[in-house]
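My current task is to audit a protein record that another person submitted. My question to you is simply how this chain folds and whether the tokens agree. This is what I was given:
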Amino acid sequence: MLKIICYGARSYEKPYFHELNKYNFQLTLVEELLTSSNAQLAQHHDAVLLRGNCAANRENLAKFNQYGIQYIFTRTVGINHIDLDACSEYGMKVARVPSYSPNAIAELSLTLAMMLLRHTAYMTTKSSFKNFIVDEHTFSKEIHNCKVGIIGVGRIGLTEAKLFKGLGASVIGYDVYQSEAAKAVIPFTTLDELLAESDIVSVHVPYLPGQNDQMINASFLAKMKKGAILINTSRGELQDNQAILDALLSNHLEGFGTDVFPKEEELFFKAFDPWQMLPDPTIQKLVELYPRVLVTPHAGSNTVTALSNMIETSYENFHDIITTLSSDNLVPLPVLAMK
């Protein structure tokens, strides 16, 4: 029986790990993310299952190698938390979950956009302090009179496009690859035209290190329609926080909603005291702009369906690898030069 240690298994997720365990893997569920302090818990296991922001760095992978662990799997799409060079060196196999409920991320993106459009966070915060005055800051547009631009119209972007169309919005898209399924739903345009025309811009682009770092920069923002809303629920490395802060302070950007930040492991899944300054001063200033800035802590996939998809696919990955020695979701590892 395969013994798997699962890091980052939150308390409310544990019943799903057990209920979906149709292959009867022997599970050890650890609520904390993988760190140098708890890597030793993996001793006497055959495999490791990670979540985002787990520190699968060379130090921890070296420990796993000493323990004889061959399988370093993650229940996420992204793999930037895993040192693939070290995995290749140690002969480990890495697998991921290439997709899960697109509705989970699309619904969050739409929710953040609608909250900013209709100023609901502003109004409900006032109401919580027993202030029921309707003022100029509650005045808003209606979504059916707005144009929504989706950058990256894959499964998630297309799902969000359909949701916005269902609310009556005009939706346009930009993508390097334009699928026939997406073309049947929305028209595609150039990136510059999308930015200039859209009242809401929502980003669903995979992060490609060295290729699209900080694509949401000062130039990108300057091309956006004045008074527009920006949403990013993809990857924090795509955004230049200082440029976004500057656009908000100049009122060129009306609002910003994000589920991600660069180096978010320093911030997310931690509780800071109200008087504490955040590690990144720019993020501190962005958070202080609430309710014009809405931040969720990389929780887009925190739904029953998405979690179930992640666990089920991960279990299939493990089953495939031990029965056929392969899996469709294996991550290609770098070929290391001979020393």
User: Anything to note?
Assistant: The first strand starts at residue 3 and ends at 7. The mean pLDDT is 95.
